[in-house]
Amino acid sequence: MNIKTIGHYINGQHEVGTSGRLSDVYNPATGEVQAKLSNASALETLAAITAAQAAFPDWSTTPALRRARIMFKFKALLDEHANDLAKAISLEHGKTISDARGEVTRGIEVVEFACGMPHLMKGDYNDQVGTGIDTYSMHQPLGVVAGITPFNFPIMVPLWMIPMALATGNTFVLKPSEKTPSASLMIADLLAEAGLPAGVFNIVNGDKEVVDVLLTDNRIQAISFVGSTPVAEYIYSTGTKNGKRVQALGGAKNHLVVMPDADLDQVADALIGAAYGSAGERCMAISVAVTVGCVADALIAKLSDKVRGITIDQGLNEKADMGPLVTPQHYAKVKEYVDLGVAEGAKLVIDGRNYQHIAHKKGFFLAPCLFDHVTKNMRIYKEEIFGPVLSVVRADTFEEALKLVNDHEFGNGVAIFTRDGEVAREFNSRVQAGMVGVNVAIPVPIAFHSFGGWKRSLFGDHHIYGMEGVRFYTRLKTTTSRWPTNNKSMGSEFVMPTMK
Q1: Per residue in 18-30, pLDDT tens?
Q2: Tens of pLDDT along 378-429?
Q3: Residue 331 is assigned to a structural domain of this protein
Q4: What's the CATH number where 353 sits?
Q5: Are residues 174 and 300 in the same domain?
Q6: Quick one: pLDDT at residue 216?
Q7: What's the number of domains the chain is made of?
Q8: What does the angle CA 451 – CA 454 – CA 456 come to, to the nearest 5 degrees?
Q9: Pair 293, 226 in one domain
Q10: Would you call 294 a catalytic residue per the annotation?
Q11: 486 in a domain, yes or no?
Q12: Claim to verify: residue 28 and residue 139 sit in the same structural domain
C-alpha cells in the first residue's frame, strides 16, 4: 500500500516537510494508517510566520470590499466542493458523511457573515464634539494571527476563525489537528482559487513544537484555540505572557435538564442525537441528563429502546447514525472511562464496550453507553469523556438540578426541556453557561451571534465568530481632529483639554 505524506502550505505553495518527524493519520473505520503527517519543525513554522508577515502590509491595505469579494468567491467554492470536504472529514475523523456535511454548512455560514465585513468594520463618527473638533473611530487589523484547531471539526472550527481574520485584514497561520489534517489543506487551495494572495494564509501541520513557536514569536499578534481545557489554559497563559491577545475555548460537560412536564419522547430523541451524534466527539455534545422529579425511569426506558436502534457503521454509509472514534488511543481512553464508571458504582444500562463491526473488525468502534444513577462525586460526571457515553443524574427539584449545573467547573453549553415558560426563563437567567438551549439540545449559535462558554470552558475575554470575532481580530483607533484656519495660533494650553 502506497501511503502518502501530508505536509504544509506556506506562501502559496504545498510543502512536503523536511523535519523527518512523521505521525500516523488513521482511517478510523478500518483501523488502518492511511497517511503519514510531516510534523513541522520550528524553522518551518518560522517560515510560515515570515510569509504571513511579508503579506500583511498589502493585504491590510486592500480595500475591505475587495477582501469581501474574495470571501464571496471562497463561499461559492465551498458550496461547490462541500461533498468533497465532507468526505475528507469522514475518512479521517470517522463521523458520518451527513454529519460532516452539516459541519461544512455551519462553517460556510461564518464565511457568509464575513462577506459583510465592509459594514461590520465601520467605526463611529461625531462632528463638532467641540468647537471645530470632530472625533471618529476605526477598526484596524492586528497583523499576523494564528489558529490552533481540534480534530473533531476540521472544517467548521477553522472557518470560525479564518474568514473573520482575513476579512478584517489580518494574515493567518493555521495549525490544524494532526489527527485530521487533510481538510485544512483543501481550504488553502480553495482560498487560492478564490484569489487570496500568496502568504496571506498558511498552514503548518504538527504538534507542540509548532504550537510553542506560535505562542512565543513576537510577530504573532493573536491566538485563537479550540480544544481541551488543560491545553486551553496552557495556550492562554503562555500566549498572554508573551503579549498576545488570546481566545482559548476549552472543554465541556454539557447538561440537559429534564423537567417533569417535558415531553419525554421529544427529550429522548434530542438526547440520542446530542449524546451519540459524531460518537460524542463534540464540545457541545450532551453528556449529562439531569432528570427532575420522577421522570428518570420512564426516560431511561425510552433511551434504552432508541440506543439499541442506532446504526453504527463507517462514515461514508449514508444510512449510518454513528461512526467510530478517531484514533486507537482515544478509543482506549473512552473505554477506560466506561470501566471507571462501573467501578465507581454507576449503573451501566447499555454497555457498548464489546461492540465489533462485522466488516471492520480493526475499526475504532465503541457502541453507545448509557449510565444511570451517576452522582456528582464520580469522575465520569466531573471529567470530559468526549465519547458516546451519556450519564443520567437524578435530582429531586429544579433548584438541585440548577445547582448541579452551576457547581460544575465547565460552563460551555446547557439545555432545559420544559413546557413551563416561567421555569425556562428562570433557568436561562440564573444558569452559569455561555450557551443555553430551551427545548434545543445543542444550542450552537448562528454565525451572526457568537460561540463561547463560561468558567473553565473559556480562557480570554472574547467568544468566537460573530461580532465578537470582529472585535477579537481588530483594534480600535479613535481620532480627534481640528483644522485651524488663517494660521491663527490657538495659544498654549496647560490643563487637561475639554471640549468647548
Answers
A1: 899 999 999 999 9
A2: 999 999 999 999 999 999 999 999 999 999 999 999 999 999 999 999 999 9
A3: yes
A4: 3.40.309.10
A5: no
A6: 98
A7: 2
A8: 115
A9: no
A10: no
A11: no
A12: yes
